[in-house]
Design goal:
- By secondary structure, the chain is α/β, with parallel strands linked by helices.
- The protein has helices at about 10-20, 35-45, 55-60, 65-75, 90-100, 115-130, 165-170, 200-205, 225-230, 245-250, 260-280, 285-310; strands spanning about 25-30, 50-55, 80-90, 105-110, 135-140, 145-150, 150-155, 175-180, 215, 255-260.
- The strands form two sheets. An eight-stranded parallel β-barrel has the order 1-2-3-4-5-8-9-10, surrounded by eight helices.
Length: about 325
């Protein structure tokens, strides 16, 4: 299936414009109809480009046919500037599968592999994907934390700025995810004083002045969601994300894509927990799922406006 048949676009023009106008394209992960609807409605209502991100585990959960049906049902056109992105593809085969399904962008994550092996795998994916005008992202450096079964690591390693030019030249990728202190999951920092390694970001941006850079593991973990979850029976002590001020600072440099997953999970969970606790007579899934969906919508609006700076950038 050609992604253009869905009205999707790849990320090349998005990133070129983001670099020129100093904003980041939000890449929001989704897992079902409610999360997809919340994200796409927020993007439409803010006139923001958006990347719909799907992990391998989320694809398995939704199923290929249902995913394609939902994307088809969005009735997209090129001017909507929406990309469908495979997040943390684990193999050449998984990227090929996504491209055949109609994804317009894929990430091949060989970050845990030795440099040369990572580069060879990324080049293999890029060579294949570019035949179909599909964008390719790869990663240098490793983010710690756990997001799902395919996205986890006990230890992190920062991106080496001296490696980035060689890696990009060897692979012909379209964007590069770097490790500067972000991490996957809801427990990203132990204190408010922890800073991202902007020295590394500056050095990488100097080496690749006009190349799209990506931040994974960059959810801000809004504390009002944590408070609501814990108030209504949850147990998420000490969950802490990346400060919005630091994310905004990163956007002012070459960061033109920021991945958000945990924030949406927290927003949804907070909405569902709250309505079920306050209205225990509810048993219609439409009622409590809508509460979660509304929370994700509002959070996406907030992050588009106040972190990504992508409002009215269509």
């Amino acid at each position: 299936m050609d992604y253009k048949d869905f009205g999707l676009v790849n990320t090349k023009k998005m990133f070129t414009d983001a670099l020129s106008h100093h904003y980041a394209v939000p890449a929001f992960n989704f897992y079902n109809m409610e999360t997809l609807a919340a994200i796409i409605n927020a993007a439409h209502d803010t006139h923001s480009p958006v990347i719909l991100a799907v992990s391998e585990s989320a694809l398995k959960y939704m199923g290929e046919d249902l995913l394609r049906g939902m994307i088809w049902g969005l009735n997209l056109k090129d001017s909507d500037s929406v990309a469908l992105h495979l997040d943390h593809g684990s193999s050449f085969e998984s990227c090929v599968k996504a491209i055949k399904l109609g994804f317009s962008s894929v990430m091949i994550d060989g970050s845990k592999l030795p440099f040369d092996t990572n580069a060879a795998l990324a080049k293999q994916v890029a060579d294949y994907a570019h035949q179909y005008d599909v964008s390719v992202e790869a990663e240098l450096g490793v983010l710690s934390g756990i997001e799902d079964e395919n996205t986890k690591a006990e230890k992190s390693s920062y991106t080496n700025p001296d490696d980035v030019v060689n890696f990009v030249n060897k692979t012909n990728i379209d964007s590069l995810a770097i490790a500067i202190g972000t991490s996957h999951g809801a427990y990203k920092r132990k204190s408010e004083n922890e800073e991202l390694r902007f020295d590394i970001l500056d050095a990488v941006a100097k080496q690749l002045p006009d190349f799209p850079l990506v931040l994974h593991g960059a959810s801000s973990i809004p504390q009002h969601f944590i408070k609501t979850i814990n108030e209504f029976g949850g147990k998420m002590k000490n969950a802490m994300g990346i400060a919005t001020s630091q994310l905004k600072r990163a956007v002012e440099k070459n960061i033109c894509k920021i991945n958000v997953d945990s924030d949406s999970r927290l927003a949804f969970t907070a909405g569902v927990r709250k309505i079920l606790a306050e209205e225990p007579e509810i048993f219609n899934p439409r009622d409590y799922l809508s509460a979660g969906q509304k929370n994700i919508y509002n959070n996406c609006i907030d992050e588009i406006k106040n972190i990504m700076n992508s409002e009215n950038k269509l």
